[in-house]
Design brief:
The protein has about 325 residues and is an alpha/beta fold. It is built from 12 helices and 10 strands. Its EC number is 3.6.5.4.
Amino acid sequence: MALGFFSRLKQGLSRSTQKLGGGLSGLFTRRKLDDAALEELEDLLITADLGPAVAERVIESFRASRFGAEVTDEEIRTTLADEIARILEPVAKPFEPDPTHRPHVVLVVGVNGVGKTTTIGKMARFFTDQGRKVMLVAGDTFRAAAVEQLQVWGQRTGCPVMAGPPGADAAGLAFEGLQRATAEGADLLFVDTAGRLHNKSALMEELAKIIRVMRKFDETAPHSVLLVLDATTGQNAVEQVRVFRELVNVTGLVVTKLDGSARGGIVVALADTFGLPVHAVGVGEQAEDLRPFEAVDYARGLVGVLPAAAENTAE
């Protein structure tokens, strides 16, 4: 899987790699790592969405270890990939259901358009392929398209979908889904939700109601709350995490649409700012393009360095 997915990851991150890696090539054909070079590198890291805090830490590391040395862009890339990997490794935690909960209830949140419903469908495919029994709840009842989309994913993956008419009570659907999933011995229950962040108080009330009603059946539910983020929003993703953490107890992140963005550095900024587990990243439209997050491969893909296992292998 590693090389195959790295190839897709590299392709999906191509815009981000071009922005960051291409900028490095422009700065460091062969150059002394002096104050001017470090300042230009810091600006490049910030514009690549790694964020000021990460950029400052990376620069200080370079200053302590390589200041005054002649460096090439390849040396900078490799060192930068190692620095980024160190930031990402503590949060790179593939999502794993807790077997003591059957079903393990996953509340999936995020603003409209980030890919929540598609993410649920892809995760359902991933776990059904592992032999897990998965059920889905179409809780974004304000958007008929979201309900229909989840039903299509249910057909593709063979997962039952609890759905109601437009405007149906999402909390009631979640409760019925939890009852059914428990009765049928499901391993996982994914609950889709609305994402109308422009009405923050109403969204907070709806999410709180879903949780409150599910806890009438299982006082420990939900067992995970996944926040889905769209990489194309860049630094806005940081603000979305802050807002949703006020609304619910976010336990982990999924970052989508990296293939449509030059802002892959935002994953680094999120890791550094919040320390929340990053469970998966999406680098394409296919189900297999949402994969467990791997820190070293991601860091190397972001700056355009081959993974260690593939350095001597032609793509």
